[in-house]
Amino acid sequence: MRDEHAWAKRIVLVALLVLVLALPYLVGNASQLNYAILVLMIAQAGVAWNILGGYAGQVSLGHAAFYGIGAYTSTQLLLVFGLSPWLGMLAGGGVAVLFALAIGWPCFRLKGHYFAMATIAIAEILQIVVTNWDWLGGAVGLSLPVAETGWRGLVFNKSKVPYYYLILGLLLLTLGVSWLIERSFLGYYFRAIKDEPDAARSVGIDLTRYKLVAITASSFLTALGGTFYAQKELFIDPGSTMATSLSIKIALVAILGGVGSLGGPVAGAVILTAIEETTRAMFGGTGRGTDLIIYALLIILVAVFYPSGVAGWWRDLEHRLLLFKRRDRASGKRKTS
Amino acid sequence: MKRLWKLFALGAALSLAIVRPALAQEEIRIGVIYPLTGAAASTGLELKQAIELAADLINNGTRGLNLPLTTTGGLPNLKGAKIKLIFGDHQGNPQTGATEAERLISQEKVVALVCCYFSNVTNTASQVAERNGIPFVNPESSSATLTQRGFKWFFRTTPHDDLFVTNFFEFLKDVEKKKNISVKRIALFNENTLFGTETTKIEERLAGEQKYPIVEKILYPAKSTQLTSEIQRIKAASPDLIMQSSYLGDAILSMKTYKELGVSPDALLANDAGFNDSEFLKTTGKDAEYVLSREVWALDLATRNPLIKQVNDIYFERYKTNFNGNSARTFTGLMTLAEAINRAGSTKPEAIQKALVETDIPGSKLIMPWKGIKFDASGQNTLGNGIIVQVQDGKYVTVWPFDLASKDIIWPMPKWDQRK
C-alpha cells in the first residue's frame, strides 16, 4: 500500500521533470519562456529562503540583501577584473555567507518577530550603503555589456533557452541541497530548533551554531540567484536587487507554497508569478491598479483558506485520498469475507 | 462522431484565435511601457494621456497643425495605417519593465517601443529591445549613461543630464554678451546625494574648461534642518553667481537662510528639482522672485511657438490640465517615431531603425524648445536643449534661449534690502 503510493509519487516526479526539461520546446514564444524563467528564479530564491525560514523557522525578511550581494559581487568582478560570472557566482555566494555570518551572530539572539525585524533593517541599511557607494555605481546602478558570450560569460541574446536551463539547474541544485538537509540530521535539528528551541537546547543542540549553518546554506544559494538575475537582466541597481519588496516576495512564495516543505516554494512561485503576470498583462495597461487588487485578493484568499500553504493543502488532499482508498478496500474486504 | 466534430470545431476556433493577430495588417502596433501603478502612477497616467493624444492626432489627421507628420488620418506612406498603442505597466521596477518589453515584443508583436520615464527601467527594457532588434524610443530618461552603451536600436529624444549642465554655461556666455557683464566668482551649492554630486562633477569640469573661477564649493547634507553655517561660508566667498541643486525642502530652507543672512549674489541659478516644484513658489512667495532655474519645457513658450498653444489647447480640452515637461516630451517621442515609420514606409523593425537614424525634424515642428531632432551614432538627439526660467511676478517665465524668451531676464537681481 505504502510502496504503491511511493511509486506513484515517483512517476509523477519523473513526469514533471521531463515536462520542465522539455518546456522550452513546448512554449510558443520568448515571452512565455521568459515567464517560465521568472517562475524558476523566484522559486529558487524561495527554496533557498525555506532552508532558514522554513526548516529552521528563522523568518528572514531581508533575503534581498544576499540576492543583491550575489548580483553586485559577480557583476563588479566582471566589470573590474573581467572575471567569468561562473567564478563571480561562487565569489558572490562566499561574500553573502560572510555577511550572513556577521549578521547572524548578533541577530540569532533575537527571537521570532524581532529576528524578522532585524533582517529588514539590515537589508535596508545595505541598500542605503550601496545606493551611496560610488564604486558600485551608486543609485545609477551597474550595466553589464550586452554581447553574446555563450556559456563562458553567461550572456545569451539570441535565445532565452540557455537562461532557462541555467536557472533550472540552479533550482535543482537548491532543491538538492534542501533535500539533503531535510534527510540528514540537520533537518531534524532545524525542525527541533523551530518547534521547541528550549527542548532542542536541553538535548544538547547548539542553537546558534545550527542556525548559522542554516543561514550559510540559505544565503549562499540566494546569492547564486542574484548573480543569475544580473546576467539575465544585464543591469542591476539597489532598488531592484536589494529592495524590501523583493525580500517580501521571496518569503511570500515560500509561505504561500508551504513553509518547511521541499516543493512548497516552487508551487508558491508558480502560483504567485502566474497571478502577477496574467493580471498585469490583462489589466495592467488600464492604469487603474486592477491587477494589483486581484493579486492581493488572491493572496488573501489563499492565506485565509489554506494557511499551511499549497503544500499543506496538497498533503490534506493526499491524506484524504489515502483514507478514502483504505476505507474502500476495507469495506471491499468485508464484503468478500 | 459527434465528439469528433466538436473536437474539430474547437481546433478550428483555436487556430483562428492564434492566426488572427497576424492578419490585422492595417494597424501599426507600438508598445508603450510606463509606471501606471505604484509611486509614480500619477506621472505615468499623464504620460499615457500625452501619448494617446499624439496617437489620436496621427490617426485622425493633424488638421492644420505644423507637426512632424502631415496626415489626413493614419500614416500616408502606409496607406493610412493607424497607430495602435499597446500599454504595459512597469510599476517602477526594472525587471518588470524588461518582462513587459519581452511580452509586448514577442506576444503582442509590437514593431517599436516607447518607454519608460525611469532611467533604470529604460536601462533593462532597452536591453530587451536591443537583443530582439526592435527600435526603442526613449522620450524622458535623462541619465547620461543610457546613450553610452553603444546600442543600435536605442534612440533618445530628450537631452540628458550632462547637456543640461552644459546649457548653464552657454546661458552664462549669452548673458555676459547681452548684458555686457562678466561672471567672475561662482559658488557651487549642491546637495550630497546622487543628483547633487553628479551635477557638481560636471559643473566643475565645465567651469574649468571655460575658465569660470569657482570660489566656493559646498556639498551639503540633503534634507538639512539647518543650512546657516554653509550659507555663511558662501556669503564669505561673496560670489556673483550661486549654482544650486536642491530638492524641495532644502530649496525652501536655503531661500529663507539667504534672506536672513542677506546673501545677495547677482543671480541664483538653480538646477530644476526643488526650485521648480509648485510648492516652492507657494511657500517662499515673494522671496522666490528673480530665481533662475533650468526647465525642460514651459507653457509660456507658446508665445513664440503657436504650435505649442494649438496642441496644448487640444490637450487641455481633453484632460483639463496643461502639458508639462514630461508629457510634452512623451508626446514628442511618439511623433518622432511615427514620422520615422512613415518615412520608412514599412513596419519592418530594420526599416524603422534605419529611418530613425536618418531623422531630421526641424524645431519649428516640435512642441519642445529644441532646435530639432537628429540622432548621433549613440542614438542621442543632438539638437535638444533645456531652457532657463526666471520667477517674475510670482510666475515662471522663459528667459533663455533669448529667441524663445517670453520676458527679458532680470540680472543682477536686486539686493534683499532694496526689494519692495
Shape of chain B: elongated
For CATH, the homologous superfamily of the largest domain in chain B is named as Response regulator
Oligomer: heterodimer
Can you identify the CATH class of the largest domain in chain B?
Answer: Alpha Beta
Q: What is the count of structural domains of chain B?
A: 2
Mean pLDDT of chain B: 88
The fraction of residues in strands of chain A falls at under 5%
* Contiguous runs where pLDDT drops below 50 for at least 5 residues of chain B: 10-25
- Give Rg of chain B in angstroms: 24 Å
What pattern of helices and strands is seen along the backbone of chain B?
Answer: HEHEHEHEEHEHEHEHEHEHHHEEEE
As residue ranges, the low-confidence spans of chain A are none
By DSSP (H or I, 4+ residues per run), the number of helices of chain A equals: 15
How many strands, which pairing sense, and closed or not: the largest β-sheet of chain B? 7 strands, mixed
Report the mean per-residue pLDDT of chain A as an integer. 87
Describe the secondary-structure layout.
The complex is a heterodimer of chains A (337) and B (420).
Chain A: H1 2-26, H2 30-55, H3 63-81, H4 85-107, H5 113-131, E1 142-143, H6 150-153, H7 161-183, H8 185-195, H9 197-202, H10 207-233, E2 235-236, H11 238-241, H12 244-257, H13 264-283, H14 290-305, H15 309-336
Antiparallel strand pairs in A: 1-2
Chain B: H1 2-23, E1 27-34, H2 41-60, E2 82-89, H3 94-106, E3 112-115, H4 119-132, E4 136-138, E5 154-156, H5 161-179, E6 186-191, H6 194-209, E7 214-220, H7 228-237, E8 241-245, H8 248-261, E9 267-270, H9 278-284, E10 292-295, H10 306-319, H11 325-344, H12 349-357, E11 361-362, E12 372-373, E13 387-392, E14 395-400
Parallel strand pairs in B: 1-2, 1-3, 3-4, 4-5, 6-7, 6-8, 8-9, 9-10
Antiparallel strand pairs in B: 10-13, 11-12, 13-14
